[in-house]
Amino acid sequence: MAKLRRAVTLRHQGNLGEAVEEVAFEAGEEVTLLKEFADRYLFKKSTGQMFTAPKDLLET
User: Model-level pTM greater than 0.90?
Assistant: First the structure.
């Protein structure tokens, strides 16, 4: 688990061909970390949507 350091809006596209949706996150919102890359994390929101974000956005 991790928490967002600040409020942010990230883009999400469920499947190729689907509309891109902007999803708002609140500061302190908890998310589930799935994978760590050199400069980013892949994480999942409680709704099941997955996102990538810079490491400095998340507090682990």
Answer: no
